[in-house]
Design goal:
The protein has 278 residues and is an alpha/beta fold. It has a 6-stranded mixed β-sheet, sandwiched between helices. The structure holds iron/sulfur cluster.
């Protein structure tokens, strides 16, 4: 883990990398002071954690995740289980993230359970003002049971830090909670089955702002078929919550142009400003 000076240097490097020479974050502390040390002084209303840590640690279209670099190891792939009849999440699940996780249990509601190692529920501050939503776990996330922990996760962490937050201060979740084989996009039936749990997470967290990462999350929360390339940077809404669509960090890694990085930076700055507006 980097020390605070190292983290600050990394953050400054990211800003330079995207061509930013000056930064104004409309918050109480100046951005230069937002090192990890200063961030620890920021009030965190509740501790950040998956309310139910994953059982044994077994974690995108141009706008989503990259193709898998290797298939899941057959030797460690659990044997397929017979899926019971799909069950809709109960309407009574409004008792917070723990209740939602409890309701999910060892979910077999859709076919994605067959090859997962870990169900990836979500991570972060359950009282977050800012929530990021991706499409589904990749290989690293499936292994670790936590969203955005691979290379794309590191990029997301940089993006979060660049707007003055720590990863632990925001909440991160996905449309589907089990890894789609080969990192394909989640299919409509999988999205339809799993997304009610995401909706409940959003209801429980009540973020001030949502940021959708990539096409599948944007299509779902913004209820649109418009592509992310056209939609990014334009405010949308999900149940009264402002939504800023932007590129998935994995896409950014694949198409690492100054233009794309600036677009994402503009989107995130807008999201941060909206959070600060209250
Ligand atoms: S993706 Fe969602 S609905 Fe499908 S098995 Fe996993 S948790 Fe259940």
């Amino acid at each position: 883990m980097l020390d605070p000076r190292g983290e600050l240097a990394e953050w400054i490097r990211y800003l330079r990398d995207i061509g930013i020479k000056e930064l104004h974050v409309p918050a109480a502390a100046p951005p230069a002071a937002r090192t990890a040390a200063s961030a620890r002084e920021m009030p965190v209303r509740r501790p950040a954690a998956d309310p139910r840590p994953a059982a044994p640690r077994k974690g995108a279209s141009p706008e989503s995740r990259p193709p898998a670099t290797k298939p899941a190891a057959p030797a460690s792939t659990p044997a397929p289980r017979a899926a019971p009849a799909p069950a809709a999440p109960s309407a009574a699940l409004s008792g917070g993230l723990a209740a939602i996780r409890e309701e999910l249990g060892d979910c077999t509601r859709c076919k994605l359970h067959e090859r997962r190692r870990n169900l990836v529920f979500g991570v972060g501050n359950p009282d977050a003002d800012l929530m990021f939503v991706g499409e589904g776990p990749g290989a690293d996330e499936d292994m670790q049971g936590e969203p955005f922990v691979g290379r794309a996760g590191q990029k997301l962490n940089e993006m979060i830090k660049a707007i003055g937050f720590e990863r632990s201060e925001v909440y991160i979740a996905n449309v589907v909670k089990c890894r789609p084989p080969g990192n394909r996009d989640p299919q409509p039936d999988e999205v339809a089955t799993c997304s009610p749990f995401l909706f409940q997470q959003i209801e429980a967290i009540k973020p001030k702002v949502l940021v959708t990462l990539g096409a599948p999350a944007t299509k779902l929360l913004c209820n649109t078929s418009v592509g992310i390339t056209r939609l990014r940077g334009n405010w949308q809404e999900f149940r009264g919550i402002p939504v800023m669509p932007t590129f998935h960090p994995a896409y950014l890694l694949r198409a690492y142009t100054v233009e794309n990085r600036k677009k994402v930076w503009e989107d995130l700055k807008a999201a941060r400003a909206r959070v600060d507006e209250g």
